[in-house]
Amino acid sequence: DGGITQSPKYLFRKEGQNVTLSCEQNLNHDAMYWYRQDPGQGLRLIYYSQIVNDFQKGDIAEGYSVSREKKESFPLTVTSAQKNPTAFYLCASSIAGTGRGNYGYTFGSGTRLTVV
Amino acid sequence: GQNIDQPTEMTATEGAIVQINCTYQTSGFNGLFWYQQHAGEAPTFLSYNVLDGLEEKGRFSSFLSRSKGYSYLLLKELQMKDSASYLCRYKLSFGAGTTVTVRA
Q: Which of A50, A72, A111, B94 is 20 to 30 A removed from B9 (C-alpha atoms)?
């Protein structure tokens, strides 16, 4: 069955550490997205990619980095420059990006990151 | 990103109807999505309105007016399992979500 997989489910980061969150999809979707959700709040866009080897900053990209070397994979690195990284991180994919229309998202199950 | 407004919380009784409004700054003719999110889980798709008007899908209906930048999600015959957060999405942006609590 096709789907989108995020790992790990829970992640603990020490102060000053970089950590990488994995997101893999086998849906043959062109576009992938990373969102952050804080308690009681909606989803805020970190980065998105509409095609391999290309990505754009979202509303809250500072302290994060991404890569899109393969269509299936869109890892997110939370760097030490992100001062308040504790949150629920959601990866999503869609058939195509917003430049070609308006498409529904398939979400991964999320990664809960905690700074210890 | 987009400025998308939803009420923060709503409470209703089992079997009742609740309407969740969503307003946004419209640009172009993109439609609008609604998602349901239970605590600690990823959002799941509920509805997508690409044209103006009402879309009905079982107990859930969604309305869109693109020119007014306005949508609502109507939940009918509320059940306890409908207690969740409901998020509207326009293009890449989400509203903050409306937490619906269903009481017996």
A: A111
Q: Is B87 on the interface with A (CB under 8 A)?
A: yes
Q: Which residues of B touch A41 (CB under 8 A)?
A: 96-97
Distance CA A79, CA A76 (A): 9
Q: Does B30 touch chain A (CB under 8 A)?
A: yes
Give dist(CA A94, CA B70) in Å, integer: 24
- Which residues 52-81 of B have a C-beta within 8 angstroms of A? none
Please name which of A100, A81, A98 lies closest in space to residue A19, comparing C-alpha atoms. A81
pLDDT in tens for each of the 104 residues of chain B? 778 999 999 999 999 999 999 999 887 777 899 999 999 899 999 999 989 999 999 999 999 998 899 999 999 999 999 999 999 999 999 999 999 999 99
Two tokens, residue A2:
């096709």
